[in-house]
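job 3f2a | input accepted
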Amino acid sequence: MNILLLVGGSHHDSPEIRTALQAIFESDGAHTVSQSEDMAVLGPDGLEGVNVVVNATTDREPEPAEHYALINHVAGGAGLVVVHGGLASFWNSQAYFGMIGSKFAGKSLDERGAGDFVVEFGPNRHTLQHPITLGLENYTVNDELFFLQGDQTQWQVLARAQGHPVMYAKTFGLGRVFVSALGHDETRFLVPNTTEVMRRGALWAAGRL
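job 3f2a | predicted structure (209 res):
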């Protein structure tokens, strides 16, 4: 499985975050993960053969041809994983937010926007049986709690924190989209349940789970 990891931006980007995400997606041993902070990779040549795109950028603004290439790639059957800052990126593309189903609309907790909260899987039997979260137990994290704005009728909410959705799955055309609002810095990707959800999320988005 070929995974393209999009990185870079004004926040939530560091060599440590890139290394942590790369390790998660390579953990199955059968995946090829390439990183790029050049949005020009979102073109016919760059996306050819890519099964899953992971958007871990923040405040990036690709050219129209680039974000539409990504949208068409997912609509055609590829997978997309949106990580934390990816909910606050591609601000120049409402079509992108239409594809992922939401956007960053603020954050809560202390003055830095970070604190401890419980990630609760569910809230019902149907979502508890979703392959991304199957068998996982609620857990406590220290992270930024993002508020998401979007059409929740499109989402299959997989987890909430303090009543707010923090993980969901949806479809877009023939493709699958997994969104996680968690991941303020590299330490958040060392939490076992977060790591497992990200790993499964990529597999599910690729149609392999």
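job 3f2a | The two ends are 12 Å apart (CA to CA).
job 3f2a | closed
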